[in-house]
Amino acid sequence: MKKIALACLFAASLASAGIADPSEYTSGASEPETPVVNINHVENDEPLFAVSVHPISMLILSIFDIPSIYLTIEGNLGSHLSLITRPSYVWKDFSDSYRDLDIYIFGLSEGLRYYFSEGHRGLFAAAHFNYARAGMDYEYKNRPEDNERLRMNGFGFAAYVGHKVRSGHFTMSIDIGYSYVRYSATGKNKDDLEDVTTVGSGLDMNYTIGVAF
What we know:
- The chain is mostly beta strands.
- It has an 8-stranded antiparallel β-barrel.
- The protein has 2 helices and 8 strands, in the order H-E-H-E-E-E-E-E-E-E.
């Protein structure tokens, strides 16, 4: 009984001294906040649009002294999708003491490009609708009554696969595909040239370099 009484007295003295469970002890200071870190967050660097030129096509035509402009303008529609606009213009004037010949070809291609990975880079596939207009004016300086004029319109489609590299603001891409265009041509007068319809199709390859914003 004496031992039990001593044990009870010792427990009572500990309780009166305010000693509690160490796991429940606190100094009274506010607990520091734990920063929330999302380890899956990736900075979105996808561009809104990009403008590129076709240097190989323009260089080859310049060798033959034929000016040209070939552009690819890309607009961001989503993480994997882009709207592609490709305007082109080729022109040439030939002249001597007897005649003048003016030729031009205008083209416009509108398409949708799908990237298989995010970031508007890597492997892609695209489908395009194409329009082309060509003109030729042949003027005889001494015989204006023999002057000739030709106009041609073309409508068609194309499908491409390609790959695009993007580093910062620099972009580079290459694509290859199949294009089909149906042309209709008319002359200055019905007597000069009856309506003519022809079809053009084949492989089409494009190499571009440009900047993205």
